[in-house]
Amino acid sequence: MMKAIFAAAFFCLVPLAAHAAEPCLPCHAEKTPAAVAQWQGSAHARAGVGCEKCHGSDHDKIVKGEAKVGMKVCGPCHQKAYQEHRASRHGMGLHSGWGCTRNLPNRKEGECRFCHEKGDEIPRSEVQCARFLKQSPEMGEIGCNYCHSVEDACDSCHSKHMTDLKIVRDPNSCAKCHMGPDHPQWEMWQTSLHGTLNASTGRKTGPDCQTCHMPKGTHNVSIGVTMNSGGVPYPAAKAEPARADMVRICSDCHAPSFAKRELERGDQVRGQSLAILKEAEHVIWDLNDRGLLDPMPENRPPHPLSGPRLVTDSQMLYEDTSHIERLFFKMKKYDYARTVKGAYHQNPAYTHWYGNAELKMDLVDIKGEASRLKERGKKGETKAAAPGAEDELKVLKNKFDRGALSEEEYAKAKAKVLEKMR
Hints:
- This protein is mainly alpha-helical and 422 residues long.
- It has 23 helices and no strands.
- The protein has helices at residues 2-13, 15-21, 25-31, 33-40, 43-46, 51-55, 59-63, 71-74, 79-87, 130-133, 137-148, 155-158, 165-168, 172-175, 185-190, 193-201, 209-213, 236-250, 256-289, 323-344, 348-379, 389-401, 407-421.
- Helix 1 packs across helix 3 (25-31) and helix 18 crosses helix 19 (256-289).
- Residues 1-13 and 382-386 have low confidence and may be disordered.
C-alpha cells in the first residue's frame, strides 16, 4: 500500500523527470522507490537524463548485472572529470589490484569484463596481482574490487543515483578504502591537527582529503604525490614538479618555506625507513641463497605469477609463505607504509609508534628468525656434509645470478673463498 502511495505521489511531483525516464518509472516507482527518489532529486533528473541514458534498454542484461554503468558511460557527459580521473592513481585502481583468472579453477566468467570488451580477446589491461589471484571469487569481489574498481566506476565515490556533491566532499567517502593497516590515511588525517581543526571549526581552517588531494575540484587525486603506492620515490623528473604542486597547495594556508621544510622532512623519514626495509630484505634473500627458508619456495604451493621462486617485491604474498617472509610482509606493507604516510600526513603517533617503532622491531624479529634458521641448519648437518668452500661458492653464484653482486664484486668474493681453500 505504501509503495502504491509513494508511486502516485511521485508521478504528481515530477512529470518532466518522469517523462525523461520512461518507460522505467511506472514499475520502479513501486519496486525500487528509494532509487527512484534518489534519481528524482538529482541533477540528472533536472537535466532530463533518464534511466535508459545510463543503463541502456536491454532489461534482461540489466537484471543479470551485465549492463554496468562504468566510466565510458559517464565520460561523454563529464569529459573533464573523466580525463582527470584517468590521469590519476584512481584511474589505475584495477591495474594495481587485479589479475587474469582464466586459469583458476573457481573463476567466474563475469570477471572477464574488467579487462575484456565483449567479444574481444585482447585485454584492456595487462595487470597481474598475486594476492588477488589467491583469493576466492567472493573475497576478490568484496575484499579487493570494492576499492580497486574505482578505476572504472564513478559510483565508487559519487553513489549510484544521487549527484549531491556533499557526499563526495565528505572525507568519509574516502575512508572506506583509505583506512586499515596498510594505508590508514583517513585515521592519520582524522587524528592530526588538520583533522581536529576540521572537526571543530570546519574546512576553512582544517583541510580535509579533498582540500589537499582534489584542489579546486579536480578529479586527479595524484597531484603533488612524489612516490608510488608502495612508497618508492619517483625519479626527479617526475617528483620535482609534483613537489612544486604540493607546496602550492600547502601555501594556501602555510608559508611556502614552511611547507617545503615539512615535506622535505617527510622525504628524510621515507629514505631512512626504506634503508631499514632494504636491510631486512637482504637478510631474507641471503637465507634463500643458502637454502634455509622454511619452507623454501620450491617446497610450497607455487606463487601465482612467479612459480617456485622467492618474491619480495610488490607481488609478495601473505599466505603460502615462510614465517620470516610473513614478518617482512607486515614490515613492508603495513609498518613502512604507516611510517612514511604518517610523516606526510602530519601525524606523530602514526609516524613513530605505529610506524617507525614497529619497523625497527620488525627488523629485530627478522634478524632473530634468521639466526634461528641458520643455527638449525648447522645442527642438521653431519661432519661429512658440513658447509665448506663449495657451499660458499654456490651461495655467491646464487647472489650473482639474481643481480645482488656485480661481476667485480662476485670475482673478489669468489677469490677470497678460493684463497681459503689453499
